[in-house]
Amino acid sequence: xxxxxxxxxxxxxxxxxxxxxxxxxxxxxxxxxxxxxxxxxxxxxxxxxxxxxxxxxxxxxxxxxxxxxxxxxxxxxxxxxxxxxxxxxxxxxxxxxxxxxxxxxxxxxxxxxxxxxxxxxxxxxxxxxxxxxxxxxxxxxxxxxxxxxxxxxxxxxxxxxxxxxxxxxxxxxxxxxxxxxxxxxxxxxxxxxxxxxxxxxxxxxxxxxxxxxxxxxxxxxxxxxxxxxxxxxxxxxxxxxxxxxxxxxxxxxxxxxxxxxxxxxxxxxxxxxxxxxxxxxxxxxxxxxxxxxxxxxxxxxxxxxxxxxxxxxxxxxxxxxxxxxxxxxxxxxxxxxxxxxxxxxxxxxxxxxxxxxxxxxxxxxxxxxxxxxxxxxxxxxxxxxxxxxxxxxxxxxxxxxxxxxxxxxxxxxxxxxxxxxxxxxxxxxxxxxxxxxxxxxxxxxxxxxxxxxxxxxxxxxxxxxxxxxxxxxxxxxxxxxxxxxxxxxxxxxxx
Amino acid sequence: xxxxxxxxxxxxxxxxxxxxxxxxxxxxxxxxxxxxxxxxxxxxxxxxxxxxxxxxxxxxxxxxxxxxxxxxxxxxxxxxxxxxxxxxxxxxxxxxxxxxxxxxxxxxxxxxxxxxxxxxxxxxxxxxxxxxxxxxxxxxxxxxxxxxxxxxxxxxxx
Lengths: 495, 158
Description:
The complex is a heterodimer of chains A (495) and B (158). Chain A has 495 residues and is mainly alpha-helical. Chain A has helices at residues 2-12, 15-33, 39-46, 55-80, 89-100, 104-129, 134-138, 142-158, 164-177, 204-223, 238-250, 252-267, 275-287, 300-322, 329-340, 347-383, 390-409, 412-431, 435-459, 467-481, 485-493, and strands at 181-182, 189-190. In chain A, helix 14 packs antiparallel against helix 16 (347-383). Chain B is mainly α. Chain B folds into 2 domains: 12-78; 88-146, no CATH class. Chain B has helices at 21-40, 45-70, 88-120, 125-146, and strands spanning 12-14, 76-78. In chain B, helix 3 crosses helix 4.
């Protein structure tokens, strides 16, 4: 094992590998800053450039840019309220209110530190767990994945501010909306109403942009004022950023819990990395003394999703490398890159190339730290954007959102759906419905149905009675209901 | 350096019965989709089972919410308090982008929209033209040339 570590470290110090990482980082940051473009886009765009490269150089280039994308998305989530990619939507909930209150520097500092350390945590865990991971990951079958996904949506829904039922409506509606288009088992198009666009179902990027970006853009256009309110304006300073960064150490419980949740969720093949930041946010809120203040600019609300978001990447690499089963959609693309480069991840890969696997964990760790430094250097520039008058910033953001949305699938109808989902987002925001729950339900809906169908086929109607399934259900119910028992009763009785 | 202002958001606002419209619409939409699937498209049980389960959950939760709103007289309800009244002018500017993109394509339509929008909001010609030029640079230079995104350059109606 020690030999593998030393060999991995020696390979990383190769100037060509370092150069590839330094080239991938700024490309990832630029893609991350563009709304709608995600880590998958970054990988899809950059994989063709790796043809002919030696495997480690190519993977260094891809993983460094992939690590940087998430950082860029966090910045736009905090500063503009526009999530760069779906998992960043969890950072918007408290990050953007902090910016509006003139605490953007703190939020950025906390996000960068939590991301960097979370990424390191995930990578260390990856390196440690790689050799022993196989039996644990394989013990989770379709019923357990089904329950985990449903519990993920329920966690977010019930923990919405003071309105568990509205959160559940949003989560269930998100799952229902994800079922439009071809059914996974029979290939029958559902609820398409004769509209060709709906044959492939509703799309994720227009939904995310409509739910989160459009209400903020409309608010900027309506008020005409800058994002940071004049009374909260304070020049962004190194001191403010450092204060935010140090806040991560003030909440070690939030940080370590979020990292662990992120890594574990990332490891589950097929559960989907988008769940991790939302679950970590929900856990931070649930364990806080005053959960109702979340959503108004709590720094733990930034630390939790950011730490888990980056920790999950290390976790997602575990099944990808150890089993050849991708832990997320991006990892599926990365798996393709491995095969293109002549490598076949799986149990044999670890036996033959343990040094390469550890080198990849180190690259991801380096990418997380280096992209945090890069974003820190850019943050002063980006924070000036919060002082641009809303009536100037809003149309610019709108154009960026529309172009970014179009770029996801090159389909102009997606742009129309941004407006439609925008109306839904505005209504939900004003009426106190949980937008992240709807988004997460939508992200996981198709997967939940697939696992449900497979579970019923393989285990029959009693698939929920498997011991691991029952243990997860019991744990989820206790976590959901016990801390909220008073709130649930109060909601029905009207407080 | 001044202490940052603490973010305060009031989450309880006076109850408005019209809030029942949202769950009612969600209920009507979900119910209509399920009815369409069952009566019009005649989906098989395998195709409809899961949407039916998810849809019924939505319907039941919406009914619960409507009942909860209607039985609360003079109470408060959870709502995001930091909302500004909707402005028709802002909505008009927001939706104006769609005809620009349709009429002039994404690259030139977006630049033209920014020029008109910024000038219309009282910004200087210099700033408006500069922003429009920057939009051209980003949409053409970055998206089309570098990222290879096939943004429609010609008007969508052509």
